[in-house]
C-alpha cells in the first residue's frame, strides 16, 4: 500500500515538474530548474515577480495556507502574462495540475513586459475586469447557475408541501418560503451528496464514494462525447451512438464471456473487439457518405434501429448472445478475466475504464490540435471545398472521422459491459448514452478537455440524480431539464448577458483596441526617448 | 423622379463606410458612381434601397424625405435595383422570381402566375429581350439572368433604377447592349444610378460622374475627362494603369494540354476539346466571359474535375486522372477564383492557412505531428515578405480584408517549389494597392522562369499581364493571340467570333 | 480516362434492383416452401365482401420474381439509353417485392390485408405530421431536429388538457400550442441568438423529454384519473367512402386526427407549391437575401413558419394520446421524431414524398404486429430491420446526394 502511495507521489511530482518545465521554457528560463525540488517553486514565485521565499513558506505545515494564497496570486500574474483569461486562476485554486496543463501545454506564448504608461495600465485593469465578467468562463458559470435556478423552481412548484403552504400564502407567507427552501435545498443537497461527497458518512473513505460513482458514470459519457464531438469538428453529426454502442457492447461482451484467456490478453482483446465493432458500424456511415453522398444523419438514425433489432435477435438466439439455459434475452455474466478491474477495490464502482478515458481524451486532444490528420479534419469541417482544393481527400476524412468516432463511442459501449454492468446485458445496455453524448459534446464545445469536463458534470448529475430520487422522491428527469438548459444557455451568450446585465463583448473589444492604441503610443514614445 | 441623398453616414463598428455623402440624380439622367472596390459605393446604395439604415442623413424623392425600413419601402417609393450578385432564386422560374414579393393572387392565396408571365412578356418586348417566363433561372446564362433582374426591377414601375456593377459578368457586346437599355430607360425619364469601377464604361454612358473614395465624395467629374484623371481621383494618387514588365523569354513548353474535354455531372461538355501549351517563363492569359469553361479548365488541371478526357502533361508527366494532392506535389500552385470559398478556411489562423495545402507533408508535418515551431517561423516570415496586414499569425483569416486574404493565398502557393502557377481571377474585389502587388508578384514568378496561367474576365488585367491570350467561348478556345491584341478583337473573340488572321488554337 | 464516352446515369439502380429480384427468386426456389397464402381483403363486418385471394406460394413467388427481374431489366435498358429509372418503377418494384415477401412469409396462413394497411395508416400518422412539420420548417430555412420534442410536447399537453376538460378537441388545440411553444424556443434561439439550429433542436428534444417525464412522475402519476386519462377520438366512418372494399376501411374508417392529416398533407403540398405563402417560404429557405431585397421580412417569415411547423408536429403528438394509446407515458414518442426527420430527407423535402416515406415506416412497424401473430419463418427482427435498411439503400443508392433548401441551417444576418 505504501509503495502505491510512493509511486503516486513520484508520478504527480514528475507531472508537475514536466508541466513547469514547459512553462519555464516559454519564459526562457532553464528547463532544469523545473525539476529541482523547492527551487522549482522558488522559480515559480519569482516568475510572477513575487519573493522566492514563498517557496520556503510553502513547505512549512499549516503556515503554507498563506503560501497557497500567494501561489494563486502568482498564477493570476502568470496567466495574464500568457494572455490567458484571468478567470483561469480559479482553476489553479481548485486543481493546480490542471492549471499547469493549460499554462504549460497551452498554445499561449509568454509575453515580455510592455512598458506601460498610466493610461494603458488603467485600461488594462478595466479590461481585465470586463473580460472576467463577460468572458466565456463567466457565461458558462452563469448558465449553470441559471439552469439550476430553473430546476429549483420546477422542484419547488411541484412539491406538495410548497403547494400546501402556498394555499395559505397570504396568512403565513413565510411558511411558503420555508417550504420552498426545504424542497429546493433538500433536492440539491441530495444531488451533491450523491455525486461529490456524502457528509452523513463517518469516514472519508465512505464519504467520497459518490465522487467515484460520478467518475464511473462519466466514463462512457466522456468517450462517447469525444466520438460525437470529433464528428462535429469534421462537420458531421453522428446520432448513431446507440447503434455503435450496442454493436460494441455485443462484440466486447461476446469476447468476454466466450473465451477463457489470461487477463492481459483477454481484457485488451475484449476492449479491442468493442472498439472495432463500434468503428465498423460507424465506418459504414462514413463509407456511404463518401461514396454516395448519403446524409450521415439519416444513415446513423437508421443504423440505430438495425443494430437494435440485430442485438435483440442475437440476445434471444441461443449460441449467439443468449445465456445458455435461459429464456431471457440476456447474456451470461462477463468473465472475470475480461472486465475492467475496480480502481479502489470492490467497495467503489470506479473502474480502470476511467483511466482509459483520460488517455482517450489526451489522444483526441493530440489528434485534433497537434496531428496532421486532425488538421485535415478541422479544415474539412470548417470549409470542405477549400480543403478539397488544398488536396485534402475530403471523402477519406469522412471515413476516418466516422471510424475514429465509432471507435470512441464503441469504447463507451465497452465501458458499459465490462465496467458498469458486468452481470450480463440486454438490449438497453446503451442507457441512452449515445444521445446524452451529443449534449456532452455540445456543452464541451467539441473540444476534448471541454468534453471531459462536461462528461464529469453530467456524470455527477446522473449519480446525484439517483440519490436525489431515492432520498427526496424527485424524479431523476429533472436532471435532463437542468442539463439541457445549461447547454441552451451556454449556446446563447447574449441571452445570459441580457438576463444578468453583463457588458457587451463588442464594447470590451473597443476597449481592447484603445488599449493597444495606448500601448502603441507608449512604444513609440519609448523609441523616441531611446533615439 | 428626382433622387437626392443628403449627408448619408453609415458606420460598421468603428469603420465609417459612408461619410456624409451627398448625391443628386435627376430624372432622365445616368449618374455614374465611380470608386474602387471597398470605397463604399455598394453600402451607399444598400442604404438607399433600405437594406441598411444610415446613422445620419436623409433620402429625398422629388423633394420629399423618405425613411426606408426595408427594401419593401424603397420599392414602393419607386426605387429599383439591379444587384451585382443577382437577387434571384435559382430554383424558381423567371415568372416566379418576378412575382416574388408582390404576388398577385386568386382565391385563398393561390398564385396567379399568368399575371407575372404577362409582365415578363411585356417588358421583354419593350426592350427586345428574349426571356422565357417559365425557364428555371438557375439554368439560364448569366447575361439572361441579368435581364431577369432588370425585368424584376421594372415590373415595380421603378422611377429610380440602380445598377450595381452590372457589367462584371457580360461580354463587351452584352455590355454595349446593356448600355443601350440604360439609355432607353433614361430617355423614357428614369433616373439611373450606375455603380462601377470601370472607367471606360463610365465615359461611355454616364451623363455625370460622382467619384467616391474611402467612403466620402472626392469630387464630380465629367465623362470627357481622361482615364488618368478619373483613375487618380478614384485612387487618390497617380496610378500606373499598366504593369511594368519586360519582354518574356519563353523556354520549353512546360504544360501541354491535348484534346482536353471536361464533362459536367449531366454530361455536358463544359470544356470542349481544347489544346494549348504554356511555356516556361511566359504568362498565358485565359480570357472570356464568366462561365465559358475557364473555371472547369483550371480545375481539370488541378484534378478537381471528375470527368476529364484528353491529356494534360506537365514536364512530360501525365496529370489527367491524378488526385489533387498529386498535382499539388508535382509543383503546381493554384490560386482559386473564389478565395473565401475555395482558397481559405476563414476560421483558421493565418499560419494554419499558410500550410493548408501541405497539411500532411514535411516540413510542416513529421511523423503525423504538426511542427508548430516551424509553422510559426514560416508564417512570421511570409507575413513580412508579403506584407500581410494582420495583427499576427494567430489572427483568423476571415477577419482580414480581401487584399490581405489574397496575399495569404499567394504566399502559400508561391512558397512552394513551383513548376506551374495557375491563378484564377487574381484581383477580383481587391483595392488598387493590392492589385498592383498581386500583378507584380505574378510577373516576378514569370521572370523566374515559371509557366503561369492567368484566368481573368477583366480585359484590362488580361492585357496587362499576358504574353499570349487564349480566349474561351462556350467551352472551346476561339483562338490564341499575342498579348498586345486590341480590345476590340478580344471582345469579338469573347463572343465566339474568330476575326480574320487569327490562327486556330 | 481517355476513352471518349458520354456520361450516363449510373448503373447503381439496375444493379440494386437486380440483386433484390435475384434474392427474391432464390428465396422461393431454395426455401422450397409449398402451400397456399391467403390474403384476406375484407373483414366480416364490411358491407361489400371480397373473396379472399388464395395464392400458391411457389407459383406466385416465381411470377413475382420474374416481374421483378423484368423491372430490373427495364431499368437496365433505360440506362443503356442514357435515361434515368423513373420513380414509379422503383415504387412498383418495392411493392411487388413486399408482396412476394408476404406471400412467402404467410404460407398456409391468412394475412389480413385491410388490418395491415389500416394499422399502417394509424402508425404512420405521427410520423407524417412530424414530417410535415419538418418540411415546412426546413423549407423556410430552419433545420428542425426538434420534431421529437414537438411530438412529445403535443402528446403530453393534449393528454392533460383533454383529461381535465374531457374534450379531445381541446386536447388537439393544446397539442398545437405546445408544439408551437417548442418551436418558439427553436426559433428564438436560432433566429435571434443565432445558435446553431442543430444544437438547439437536439437540446430541445432532451429538454422536452426531461420536462414531460418530470411532470409525468411528479404530477400526473399523483392523480391519473384527473390528469392522464384523456377521452380518445372514436373511429368515424365516412358514409359511402368507407364501404369501398380495402380502401374504405383503410382510409375512411379512421379517427378525426387521421382525416385532419389528409387535409394537412394536401394543404401543405398545395400551399408550398401553388400559393403566395409557399412561394415566399421557399424563397426564404433558398436565398434569404434575395427574399429580403424584394421586401419579404426574412426572420419574421421564418419565425412564424417554424411556429406553424411546431403546431403541425404537435398535432402528431396528440395522436399518441388521443388517437392510439389513451394516456401519456414517459418517452412515448420513442424516437419517431427522428424517423420523421428521416422521412423529410428521404422524401426530398416534398410533403407528398415525405408522406410516402412515413407510410413505409408505419407499414414496417405494423408488419411486426402482424408477423408476431403467425410466427414468421425468418426472425421477425429481420423483417423489422427491412424498412431501415431500405431507407439506407434508398438514400445511398437511389436518392443519392439529396440537396435540401439551400439556406437551411444558416441564420440570416443583415449586415
UniProtKB/TrEMBL annotation, chain A:
Transmembrane segments: 53-79, 86-105, 137-158, 179-197, 217-234, 271-290, 297-315, 350-368, 398-418, 449-466, 478-500
Molecular function terms, GO-annotated: transmembrane transporter activity
CDD domains: TM_PBP1_transp_TpRbsC_like
This protein's UniProt keywords: Cell membrane, Membrane, Transmembrane, Transmembrane helix
Subcellular location: Cell membrane
One Pfam family this sequence matches: DUF5684
Membrane topology: Multi-pass membrane protein
Keyword Cell membrane (UniProt): yes
Entry keyword Repeat: no
GO cellular component: plasma membrane
Domain of life: Bacteria
Cross-referenced InterPro entries: ABC_transp_permease, DUF5684
Cross-referenced PANTHER family: ABC TRANSPORTER, PERMEASE PROTEIN, GUANOSINE ABC TRANSPORTER PERMEASE PROTEIN NUPP
UniProt-recorded name of the protein: Nucleoside ABC transporter membrane protein
Organism: Klugiella xanthotipulae
Upper classification of the organism: Bacteria, Bacillati, Actinomycetota, Actinomycetes, Micrococcales
TrEMBL record, chain B:
SMART domains with a match to the protein in the record: AAA
GO cellular component labels: plasma membrane
InterPro entries: AAA+_ATPase, ABC_carbohydrate_import_ATPase, ABC_transporter-like_ATP-bd, ABC_transporter-like_CS, P-loop_NTPase
Alphabetized PROSITE patterns for the sequence: ABC_TRANSPORTER_1, ABC_TRANSPORTER_2
Localization in the cell: Cell membrane
Tagged with keyword ATP-binding: yes
Gene3D superfamilies per record: P-loop containing nucleotide triphosphate hydrolases (3.40.50.300)
Pfam families reported for this sequence: ABC_tran
ABC transporter domain boundaries: 3-239, 255-499
Main localization category: membrane
Coiled-coil residue windows: none
Lipid bilayer topology: Peripheral membrane protein
Keywords assigned by UniProt, alphabetized: ATP-binding, Cell membrane, Membrane, Nucleotide-binding, Repeat, Translocase, Transport
Alphabetical list of PANTHER family matching this protein: CARBOHYDRATE TRANSPORT ATP-BINDING PROTEIN MG119-RELATED (PTHR43790), GUANOSINE IMPORT ATP-BINDING PROTEIN NUPO (PTHR43790:SF4)
Protein name as it appears in the record: Nucleoside ABC transporter ATP-binding protein
UniProt organism field: Klugiella xanthotipulae
Automatic annotation (TrEMBL), chain C:
Transmembrane feature ranges: 59-80, 87-107, 113-135, 142-163, 169-191, 198-220, 251-272, 303-326, 332-349, 356-376, 382-400
Record's GO cellular component terms: plasma membrane
Membrane topology field: Multi-pass membrane protein
GO terms, molecular function: transmembrane transporter activity
Main subcellular localisation: membrane
Coiled coil, from the record: none
Keywords: Cell membrane, Membrane, Transmembrane, Transmembrane helix
Subcellular location: Cell membrane
Origin: domain of life: Bacteria
CDD domains in alphabetical order: TM_PBP1_transp_TpRbsC_like (cd06580)
InterPro entries for the chain: ABC_transp_permease
Name of the protein in question: Nucleoside ABC transporter membrane protein
Native source organism of the sequence: Klugiella xanthotipulae
Amino acid at each position: 500500500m505504501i509503495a502505491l502511495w510512493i509511486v503516486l507521489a513520484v508520478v504527480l511530482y514528475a507531472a508537475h515538474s514536466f508541466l513547469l518545465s514547459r512553462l519555464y521554457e516559454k519564459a526562457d528560463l532553464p528547463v532544469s530548474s523545473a525539476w529541482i525540488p523547492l527551487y522549482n517553486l522558488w522559480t515559480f514565485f519569482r516568475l510572477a515577480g513575487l519573493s522566492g521565499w514563498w517557496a520556503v513558506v510553502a513547505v512549512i505545515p499549516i503556515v503554507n495556507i498563506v503560501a497557497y494564497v500567494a501561489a494563486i496570486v502568482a498564477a493570476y500574474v502568470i496567466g495574464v502574462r500568457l494572455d490567458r483569461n484571468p478567470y483561469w486562476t480559479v482553476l489553479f485554486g481548485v486543481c493546480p495540475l490542471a492549471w499547469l496543463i493549460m499554462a504549460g501545454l497551452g498554445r499561449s506564448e509568454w509575453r515580455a513586459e510592455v512598458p506601460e504608461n498610466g493610461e494603458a495600465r488603467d485600461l488594462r485593469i478595466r479590461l481585465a475586469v470586463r473580460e472576467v465578467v463577460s468572458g466565456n468562463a463567466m457565461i458558462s458559470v452563469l448558465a449553470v447557475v441559471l439552469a439550476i435556478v430553473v430546476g429549483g423552481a420546477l422542484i419547488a412548484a411541484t412539491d406538495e408541501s410548497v403547494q400546501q403552504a402556498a394555499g395559505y400564502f397570504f396568512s403565513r407567507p413565510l411558511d411558503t418560503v420555508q417550504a420552498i427552501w426545504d424542497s429546493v435545498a433538500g433536492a440539491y443537497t441530495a444531488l451533491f451528496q450523491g455525486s461529490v461527497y456524502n457528509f452523513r458518512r463517518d469516514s472519508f473513505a465512505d464519504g467520497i464514494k459518490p465522487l467515484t460513482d460520478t467518475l464511473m458514470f462519466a466514463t462512457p459519457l466522456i468517450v462517447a462525447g469525444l466520438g460525437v464531438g470529433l464528428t462535429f469538428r469534421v462537420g458531421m453529426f453522428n446520432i448513431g451512438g446507440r447503434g455503435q454502442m450496442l454493436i460494441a457492447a455485443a462484440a466486447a461482451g461476446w469476447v468476454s464471456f466466450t473465451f477463457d484467456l489470461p487477463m492481459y490478453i483477454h481484457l485488451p482483446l475484449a476492449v479491442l473487439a468493442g472498439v472495432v465493432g463500434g468503428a465498423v458500424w460507424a465506418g459504414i456511415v462514413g463509407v456511404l457518405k463518401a461514396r454516395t453522398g448519403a446524409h450521415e444523419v439519416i444513415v446513423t438514425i437508421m443504423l440505430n434501429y438495425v443494430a437494435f433489432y440485430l442485438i435483440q435477435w442475437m440476445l434471444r438466439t441461443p449460441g449467439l448472445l443468449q445465456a445458455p439455459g435461459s429464456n431471457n434475452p440476456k447474456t451470461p455474466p462477463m468473465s472475470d478475466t475480461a472486465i475492467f478491474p475496480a480502481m479502489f477495490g470492490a467497495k467503489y464502482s470506479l473502474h480502470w475504464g476511467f483511466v482509459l478515458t483520460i488517455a482517450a481524451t489526451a489522444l483526441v486532444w493530440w489528434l485534433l490540435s497537434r496531428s496532421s490528420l486532425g488538421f485535415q479534419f478541422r479544415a474539412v469541417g470548417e470549409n470542405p471545398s477549400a480543403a478539397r482544393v488544398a488536396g485534402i481527400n475530403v471523402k477519406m476524412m469522412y471515413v476516418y472521422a466516422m471510424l475514429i468516432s465509432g471507435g470512441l463511442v464503441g469504447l463507451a459501449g465497452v465501458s458499459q459491459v465490462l465496467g458498469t454492468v458486468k452481470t450480463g446485458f440486454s438490449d438497453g445496455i446503451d442507457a441512452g448514452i449515445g444521445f446524452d453524448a451529443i449534449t456532452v459534446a455540445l456543452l464541451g464545445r467539441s473540444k476534448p478537455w471541454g468534453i471531459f469536463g462536461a462528461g464529469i458534470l453530467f456524470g455527477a448529475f446522473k449519480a446525484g440524480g439517483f440519490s436525489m430520487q431515492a432520498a427526496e422522491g424527485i424524479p431523476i428527469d429533472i436532471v435532463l431539464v437542468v442539463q439541457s438548459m445549461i447547454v441552451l444557455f451556454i449556446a446563447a451568450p447574449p441571452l445570459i448577458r441580457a438576463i444578468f446585465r453583463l457588458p457587451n463583448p463588442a464594447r470590451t473589444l473597443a476597449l481592447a483596441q484603445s488599449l493597444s492604441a495606448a500601448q502603441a503610443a507608449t512604444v513609440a514614445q519609448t523609441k523616441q526617448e531611446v533615439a | 423622379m428626382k433622387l437626392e441623398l443628403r449627408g448619408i453616414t453609415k458606420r460598421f463598428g468603428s469603420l465609417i463606410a459612408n461619410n456624409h455623402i451627398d448625391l443628386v440624380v435627376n430624372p432622365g439622367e445616368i449618374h455614374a458612381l465611380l470608386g474602387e472596390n471597398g470605397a463604399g459605393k455598394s453600402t451607399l446604395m444598400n442604404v438607399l434601397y433600405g437594406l441598411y439604415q444610415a446613422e445620419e442623413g436623409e433620402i429625398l424623392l422629388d423633394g420629399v424625405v423618405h425613411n426606408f425600413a426595408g427594401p419593401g419601402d424603397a420599392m414602393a417609393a419607386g426605387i429599383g435595383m439591379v444587384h451585382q450578385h443577382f437577387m434571384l432564386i435559382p430554383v424558381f422560374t423567371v415568372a416566379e422570381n418576378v412575382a416574388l414579393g408582390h404576388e398577385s393572387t386568386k382565391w385563398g392565396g393561390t398564385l396567379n402566375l399568368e399575371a407575372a408571365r404577362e409582365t415578363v412578356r411585356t417588358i421583354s418586348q419593350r426592350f427586345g429581350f428574349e426571356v422565357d417566363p417559365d425557364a428555371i433561372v438557375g439554368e439560364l446564362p448569366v447575361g439572361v439572368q441579368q435581364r431577369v433582374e432588370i425585368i424584376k426591377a421594372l415590373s415595380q414601375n421603378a422611377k429610380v433604377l440602380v445598377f450595381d456593377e452590372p457589367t462584371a459578368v457580360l461580354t463587351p457586346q452584352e455590355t454595349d447592349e446593356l448600355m443601350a437599355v440604360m439609355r432607353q430607360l433614361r430617355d423614357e425619364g428614369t433616373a439611373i444610378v450606375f455603380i462601377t469601377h470601370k472607367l471606360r464604361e463610365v465615359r461611355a454612358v454616364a451623363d455625370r460622374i460622382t467619384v467616391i473614395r474611402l467612403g466620402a465624395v472626392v469630387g464630380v467629374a465629367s465623362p470627357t475627362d481622361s482615364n488618368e484623371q478619373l483613375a487618380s481621383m478614384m485612387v487618390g494618387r497617380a496610378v500606373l494603369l499598366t504593369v511594368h514588365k519586360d519582354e518574356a523569354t519563353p523556354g520549353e513548353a512546360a504544360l501541354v494540354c491535348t484534346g482536353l474535354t471536361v464533362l459536367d455531372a449531366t454530361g455536358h461538355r463544359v470544356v470542349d476539346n481544347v489544346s494549348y501549351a504554356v511555356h516556361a517563363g511566359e504568362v498565358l492569359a485565359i480570357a472570356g466571359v464568366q462561365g465559358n469553361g475557364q473555371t472547369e479548365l483550371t480545375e481539370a488541371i488541378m484534378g478537381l474535375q471528375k470527368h476529364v478526357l484528353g491529356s494534360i502533361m506537365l514536364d512530360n508527366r501525365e496529370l489527367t486522372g491524378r488526385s489533387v494532392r498529386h498535382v499539388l506535389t508535382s509543383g503546381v500552385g493554384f490560386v482559386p477564383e473564389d478565395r473565401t470559398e475555395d482558397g481559405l478556411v476563414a476560421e483558421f489562423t493565418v499560419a494554419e492557412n499558410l500550410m493548408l495545402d501541405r497539411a500532411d507533408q514535411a516540413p510542416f508535418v513529421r511523423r503525423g505531428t504538426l511542427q508548430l515551431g516551424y509553422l510559426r517561423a514560416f508564417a512570421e516570415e511570409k507575413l513580412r515578405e508579403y506584407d500581410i496586414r494582420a495583427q499576427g499569425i494567430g489572427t483568423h483569416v476571415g477577419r482580414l480584408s480581401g487584399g490581405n486574404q489574397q496575399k495569404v493565398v499567394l504566399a502559400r502557393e508561391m512558397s512552394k517549389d513551383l513548376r506551374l502557377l495557375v491563378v484564377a481571377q487574381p484581383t477580383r474585389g481587391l483595392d488598387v494597392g493590392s492589385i498592383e502587388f498581386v500583378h507584380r508578384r505574378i510577373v516576378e514568378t514569370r521572370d523566374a522562369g515559371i509557366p503561369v496561367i492567368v484566368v481573368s474576365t477583366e480585359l484590362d488585367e488580361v492585357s496587362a499581364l499576358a504574353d499570349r491570350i487564349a480566349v474561351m467561348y462556350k467551352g472551346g478556345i476561339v483562338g490564341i493571340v499575342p498579348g498586345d491584341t486590341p480590345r476590340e478583337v478580344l471582345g469579338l473573340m469573347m463572343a465566339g467570333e474568330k476575326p480574320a488572321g487569327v490562327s486556330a488554337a | 480516362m481517355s476513352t471518349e464516352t458520354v456520361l450516363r446515369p449510373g448503373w447503381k439502380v439496375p444493379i440494386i434492383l437486380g440483386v433484390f429480384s435475384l434474392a427474391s427468386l432464390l428465396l422461393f426456389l431454395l426455401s422450397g416452401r409449398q402451400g397456399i397464402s391467403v390474403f384476406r381483403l375484407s373483414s366480416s363486418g364490411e358491407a361489400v365482401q371480397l373473396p379472399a385471394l388464395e395464392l400458391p406460394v411457389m407459383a406466385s413467388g416465381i411470377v413475382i420474381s420474374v416481374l421483378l427481374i423484368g423491372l430490373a431489366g427495364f431499368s437496365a435498358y433505360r440506362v443503356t439509353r442514357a435515361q434515368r429509372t423513373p420513380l414509379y418503377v422503383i415504387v412498383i418494384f418495392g411493392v411487388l417485392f413486399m408482396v412476394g415477401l408476404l406471400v412467402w412469409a404467410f404460407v398456409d396462413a391468412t394475412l389480413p390485408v385491410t388490418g395491415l394497411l389500416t394499422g399502417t395508416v394509424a402508425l404512420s400518422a405521427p410520423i407524417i405530421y412530424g414530417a410535415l412539420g419538418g418540411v415546412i420548417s426546413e423549407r423556410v430555412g430552419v433545420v428542425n431536429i426538434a420534431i421529437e420534442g414537438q411530438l412529445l410536447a403535443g402528446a403530453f399537453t393534449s393528454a392533460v388538457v383533454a383529461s381535465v376538460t374531457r374534450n379531445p378537441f381541446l386536447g388537439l388545440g393544446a397539442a398545437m400550442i405546445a408544439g408551437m411553444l417548442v418551436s418558439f424556443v427553436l426559433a428564438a434561439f436560432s433566429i435571434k441568438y443565432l445558435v446553431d439550429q442543430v444544437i438547439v433542436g437536439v437540446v430541445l428534444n432532451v429538454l422536452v423529454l426531461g420536462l414531460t417525464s418530470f411532470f409525468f412522475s411528479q404530477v400526473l402519476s399523483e392523480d391519473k384519473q384527473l390528469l392522464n386519462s384523456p377521452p380518445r377520438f372514436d373511429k368515424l366512418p365516412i358514409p359511402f367512402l368507407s364501404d369501398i372494399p380495402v380502401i374504405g376501411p383503410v382510409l375512411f374508417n379512421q379517427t378525426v386526427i387521421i382525416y385532419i392529416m389528409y387535409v394537412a398533407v394536401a394543404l401543405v403540398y398545395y400551399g408550398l407549391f401553388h400559393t403566395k405563402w409557399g412561394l415566399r417560404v421557399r424563397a426564404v429557405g433558398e436565398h434569404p437575401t434575395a427574399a429580403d431585397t424584394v421586401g419579404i421580412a426574412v426572420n419574421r417569415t421564418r419565425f412564424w413558419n417554424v411556429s406553424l411547423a411546431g403546431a403541425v408536429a404537435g398535432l402528431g403528438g396528440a395522436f399518441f394520446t388521443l388517437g392510439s394509446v389513451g394516456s401519456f407515458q414517459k418517452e412515448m414518442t420513442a424516437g419517431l421524431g427522428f424517423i420523421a426527420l428521416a422521412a423529410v430527407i428521404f422524401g426530398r423535402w416534398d410533403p407528398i414524398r415525405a408522406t410516402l416515406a412515413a407510410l413505409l415506416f408505419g407499414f414496417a412497424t405494423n408488419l411486426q404486429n402482424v408477423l408476431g401473430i403467425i410466427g414468421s419463418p425468418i426472425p421477425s427482427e429481420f423483417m423489422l430491420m427491412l424498412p431501415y435498411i431500405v431507407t439506407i439503400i434508398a438514400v445511398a443508392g437511389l436518392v443519392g446526394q439529396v440537396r435540401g433548401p439551400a439556406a437551411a441551417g444558416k441564420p440570416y444576418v443583415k449586415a
